[in-house]
Amino acid sequence: MARHVNGSGRKPPYTRMVFAIATVLTLLGVYGMFLYQGRSLLKELRERVTVVVELRPSILENDRIAFKAWLSDQAFAKTNSITFVDKETGAQKLRETYGEDFMDFNLENPLYELYTFNVTEAYATSQKLDKVKSLVDAREESLGTYVEKDLVNSLSQRVSVIAWIGIVLGVLLVLGVVFLIVNTTRLALLSKAQLIKNMELVGASWGFISRPFLVTGAKMGALSGVIASGLSMLVSGGLSSWIPFIWQPLSTTHFIILATILIVLGLLLNFASTYYVVRKTLNLRVDDLAALR
Questions:
Q1: Is the C-alpha dihedral spanning 166, 168, 173, 178 positive or negative?
Q2: Pairwise CA distance, residues 72 & 205, whole Å
Q3: Distance of CA 174 to the CA centre of its chain
Q4: Among 3.30.70.3040, 3.90.230.10, 2.130.10.10, 3.40.50.2300, what is the CATH number of 50-147?
Q5: 3-state SS of the chain: helix, strand, coil percent to 5?
Q6: CB 274 within 8 A of CB 217
Q7: What digits encode the pLDDT tens for the residues 57-107?
Q8: In sequence order, which residues have a C-beta less than 8 Å from that of residue 193 and are 6 or more positions away?
Q9: Do residues 206 and 282 make contact, with C-beta atoms less than 8 angstroms apart?
């Protein structure tokens, strides 16, 4: 039986296609990791917001301990962040900060005993902090509650700007990735255009013509996702070594999630691109194929 040779005599450059798609998927993977790292950094910054609670001078030791237990049970207090500061410790911190000791003037220590704690991320907003202040102030043990609302408002404004920039960049990146994958697939299947048209002319159905191309496209897309996952992991490892104070290594769970997304995305995008290219080729006239050679 004679072996069929396509019109151009060339094989589709699947190797170049795989690595081209893997490259653009790697960009998506790195972008996703930047979003994750930014989210983690934002969470850490929000949970650094400190609440200071001054205690009444007449508070008893048992009441103070009970108040701490109450704070520990509240959803707004970050676990293990509650710290008790007595009057002597407060005076020592002032001495270290300002370099002077007001106790040298034989004055009575005017400071109050207090608790400090960090809020959880969910409560690091101006409105939620107002609720926290109201709840704490309602306690008999509390003389006054002070929160860093200026820091929270400033952080919220910057986060809003950065979020919009991230959304715009993400949309542009996705559009660029889709365009590059479609164009790469079109170039890879260019050598098969005459074969696809010939199969249609001899009466082959759409399913018979497209099935092998779609299956190959899906496999190539999945393989590109696997390669992109490995490249993304290398980039993450390099960044964690270069800037460890900002970039945290991905956990095994997060890497599996990222790899799964890239593989599925590569499969679906290349499958859809192959479908589009094959369908477009079938809609061409015979005379138009000469321009593709």
A1: positive
A2: 69
A3: 15
A4: 3.30.70.3040
A5: 70, 10, 25
A6: yes
A7: 888 889 999 999 999 999 999 988 999 988 777 767 766 666 665 555 555
A8: 7, 281, 284, 289, 292
A9: yes
What DSSP designation does 119 have? B
List, for residues 214-226, the tens digit of each pLDDT value: 898 899 999 999 9
Question: Contact at 8 Å (CB) between 213 and 17?
Answer: no
Which H helix or E strand runs over 1?
none
10 Å CB burial of residue 244 (0-12, 13-18, 19+) is exposed
Which amino acid, residue 218?
A: A
Q: Which residues contact 269 (CB under 8 A, 6 or more apart)?
A: 21, 177, 178, 181, 221
The mean pLDDT value of the chain amounts to 81
**Ranges of each domain in the chain:** 14-44+157-292, 50-147
Neighbours of 271 (CB within 10 A): 21
State pLDDT tens for residues 108-138.
666 788 899 999 988 988 889 889 999 999 9
**Residue with tokens 């103070």, as numbered in its chain:** 64
168's CB contacts (< 8 A; 6+ apart) are none
Q: What is the DSSP string of 27-79?
A: HHHHHHHHHHHHHHHHHHHHTT-EEEEEEPTT--HHHHHHHHHHHHHSTTBPT
What phi, psi does 12 have (nearest 5°)? -60, 135
